[in-house]
């Protein structure tokens, strides 16, 4: 058998390598580059993102507005008055306490809802009256109550501008625990007899009837000699009702959102009258504001009328006297519709707490004619 020598093998490899080199050397030069293909269609741009900083600073800027309003509101009765103590009390649609005594209840009530009981309930606050953090723009300062509230008494609504936000709560509560016969039979000379018993001791307007007195309606208007052509004088001067006077920016933390009509200046309390009033009652240089004297005179007159009416009601054994545990409530027993109507008028003016100034003409006439009607 023949052996293949190493020389033969090496020679075969040499021939293969040489052949490969010859084949590769036969490839021609690289040709020119071809034309680029057409570009594809660009994709649609996405929506630009929102710059959170530019949005927030519409309200949270360095103008200190929020600081000023917050400090003012901290001094208000709405903030400090502990109204949320009535948060989870509800006696049906007409007497839903949470609807006015809490922020959550008020917001729900605007859409006809109620979710009593509420957890972590709050006093009325910024979110109660403004659409805070809805659009995160200055549009959020808009008021939550955009309509004209219908009076719970069934009377015709009166538009008082941005004051409608206030009148949603600051109004009579449908003649609270009313006696039906009273409303149609008062002013008949006191001949109709009614009997007061149990919860009827609270017959009346509940608290906060400011809206009704401001627009001059829903008190019992006895016929009588008293009349006053200036009945709607205050209302005619305030385009935005309550807001015109009670949120008039003046000085410091006790004006504006504190809703106070007075503020302290050099140790004395000063009225913060709106410009609309001072147009007709101008202040002379270095002279007291004439409106201060008018307010004092009205308060003195109304206080005198209220004292007369109080004495008549207590003497008639219809109203518990001041200082007792049931002060100002109706006493049980048989009485007349005229006396109960007089009692409602007394408490309406007392709860209004404006000393007559919300509507001097209307309040003075109602009190004077009521006194004349029930005087023995």
Description:
37% of the residues lie in helices and 4% in strands. It is mainly alpha-helical and 376 residues long. The protein has a domain at 155-237 and 280-376. The model has no long low-confidence stretch (mean pLDDT 86).
Question: Radius of gyration, Cα only, in angstroms?
Answer: 40 Å
**Based on CA inertia axes, which overall geometry fits?**
elongated
**Helix-and-strand structural type:** mainly alpha
> Kindly state the mean pLDDT as a whole number?
86
Q: How far do the termini sit from each other?
A: 160 Å
H/I helix tally: 16
* Quaternary structure state of the chains depicted: single chain
Question: Helical content, roughly?
Answer: 25-40%
- Count every beta strand, where a strand is a DSSP E run of 2 or more residues: 4
Order of helices and strands: HHHHHHHHHEHHHEEHHEHH
Low-confidence stretches: none
Strand line-up of the largest beta sheet:
1-4
User: How would you sum up the major sheet?
Assistant: 2 strands, antiparallel
């Amino acid at each position: 058998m023949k052996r293949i020598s190493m020389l033969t093998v090496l020679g075969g490899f040499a021939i293969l390598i040489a052949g490969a080199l010859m084949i590769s050397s036969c490839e021609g030069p690289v040709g020119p580059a071809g034309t680029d293909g057409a570009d594809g269609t660009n994709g649609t741009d996405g929506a630009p993102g929102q710059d959170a900083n530019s949005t927030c600073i519409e309200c949270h800027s360095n103008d200190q507005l929020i600081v000023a309003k917050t400090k003012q509101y901290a001094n208000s009765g709405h903030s400090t008055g502990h109204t949320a103590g009535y948060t989870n009390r509800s006696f049906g649609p007409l007497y839903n306490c949470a609807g006015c005594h809490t922020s959550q209840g008020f917001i729900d009530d605007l859409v006809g809802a109620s979710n009593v009981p509420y957890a972590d309930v709050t006093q009325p606050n910024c979110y109660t009256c403004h659409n805070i953090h809805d659009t995160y723009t200055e549009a959020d300062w808009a008021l939550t109550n955009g309509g004209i509230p219908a009076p719970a008494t069934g009377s015709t609504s009166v538009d008082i501008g941005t004051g409608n936000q206030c009148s949603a709560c600051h109004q009579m509560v449908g003649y609270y625990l009313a006696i039906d016969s009273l409303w149609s039979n008062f002013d008949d000379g006191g001949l109709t007899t009614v009997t007061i018993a149990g919860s009827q001791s609270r017959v009346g307007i509940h608290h906060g009837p400011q809206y009704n007195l401001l627009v001059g309606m829903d008190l019992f208007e006895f016929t009588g000699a008293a009349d006053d052509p200036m009945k709607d004088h205050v209302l005619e001067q305030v385009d935005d009702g309550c807001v015109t006077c009670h949120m008039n920016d003046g000085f410091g933390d006790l004006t504006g959102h504190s809703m106070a009509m007075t503020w302290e200046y050099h140790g004395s309390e000063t009225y913060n009258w709106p410009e609309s009033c001072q147009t007709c009652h101008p202040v002379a240089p270095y002279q007291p504001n004439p409106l201060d004297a008018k307010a004092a005179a009205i308060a003195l007159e109304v206080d005198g009328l209220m004292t007369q009416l109080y004495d008549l009601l207590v003497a008639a054994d219809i109203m518990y006297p001041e200082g007792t545990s049931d002060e100002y409530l109706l006493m049980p027993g048989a009485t007349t519709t005229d006396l109960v109507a007089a009692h409602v008028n007394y408490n309406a003016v007392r709860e209004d707490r404006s000393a007559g100034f919300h509507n001097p003409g209307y309040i003075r006439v109602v009190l004077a004619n009521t006194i004349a009607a029930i005087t023995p």
